[in-house]
Design goal:
The chain contains eight helices and 13 strands. The protein is an alpha+beta fold. Strands 2-1-3-4-5-6-7-8 form an eight-stranded mixed beta sheet, with helices on both faces. A five-stranded mixed beta sheet has the order 10-9-11-13-12, with helices on both faces. Helix 1 packs antiparallel against helix 2 and helix 5 packs parallel to helix 6. The longest helix has 27 residues. Bound molecules: D-MYO-inositol-1-phosphate and calcium ion (2 copies). The site of one calcium ion has 5 residues, from strand 3. The site of one calcium ion (CA) has 5 residues, from strand 3.
């Protein structure tokens, strides 16, 4: 797809931050066996990646606002546009040397996400979308949600938020209702990739609670542009405010929502 100038800026920034994170990821693999472990090292890697993204994105668009996981919010000279960034989504995987993590960058305009990039450097998979332009993987692969209509064949993703004190009972209820009716549930630990995988037809749907805008923003538009229905867990469009999401193709969404919303 021939992307806009903003999309090209986002892709370039993601690749640059990825180079730094990949170098650090190799080091993390060595640090597993050290007495102190890779904890501090990873938080430094995370902060360094956000600094690279900030430099690239605000460098190219200095009047936009900023919302990133690792730094303070900035209201831009143009208050209608802001970058929403998670420099490292899937931190626990990264920390444990597991190659399933991503850089997530979204552009919001007047409260609506209009472009999103989710880059998985370990697999060199660049997922991206712009409003009305479809969702894409790497140079030319158009993404569509899976065509599966049958709950019994569907595989869903979910996440249990860090700590999970408040949501664990609800999650266990969800699982006890959904798992007997579907083909499987995965918890892979990177919300942005869960959404991108729904877009790519790998997962048939996804739900999670207690998320932040930077976990969701880029993945949301990628999933929507690939044909997924995406709502807040309890219904409606207030995904960021509720911090929750429920997403699937049109055929499976009503069934998934019924099972989970009644749980
Ligand atoms: C986390 C991941 C995970 C989700 C957590 C998020 P982080 O983000 O997206 O899949 O279950 O709730 O906080 O901490 O790795 O950026
Ligand atoms: Ca995250
Ligand atoms: Ca993060």
């Amino acid at each position: 797809m021939q992307g806009s100038a903003n999309l090209n800026i986002m892709i370039k920034a993601a690749r640059k931050a990825a180079r730094s994170l990949v170098k650090d990821f190799r080091e993390v693999e060595n640090l597993q066996v050290s007495a102190k472990g890779p904890g501090d090292f990873v938080s430094k890697a995370d902060i360094a990646a956000e600094a690279i993204l900030k430099e690239e994105l605000l460098g190219a668009r200095p009047n936009y606002g900023w919302m990133g996981e690792e730094s303070d919010e900035i209201v831009g000279e143009d208050p209608t546009r802001r970058w929403i960034v998670d420099p490292l989504d899937g931190t626990t995987n990264f920390l444990h040397g597991m190659p399933h993590w991503a850089i997530s960058i979204a552009l919001e305009h007047k409260g609506e996400v209009v472009a999103g990039v989710v880059y998985d450097p370990a697999k060199d998979e660049m997922f991206y979308a712009e409003k009305g332009q479809g969702a894409w993987l790497n140079d030319s692969q158009r993404l569509r949600v899976a065509a599966r209509r049958n709950m019994a064949e569907a595989v869903f993703a979910t996440g249990v938020p860090f700590g999970a004190k408040n949501t664990l009972p609800a999650m266990l209820r969800d699982l006890s209702r959904l798992m007997p009716q579907c083909a499987g549930v995965r918890r892979w630990g990177a919300a942005s990739l869960d959404l991108a995988y729904v877009a790519a037809g790998r997962f048939d749907g996804y739900w999670e609670r207690e998320l932040q805008p930077w976990d969701l923003a880029a993945g949301l538009i990628i999933a929507r542009e690939a044909g997924a229905l995406v709502e807040a867990f309890r219904g409606g469009p207030e995904i960021f405010d509720s911090g929750s999401v429920l997403c699937a193709n049109e055929a499976l969404f009503p069934g998934l929502a019924k099972i989970l919303r009644e749980a």
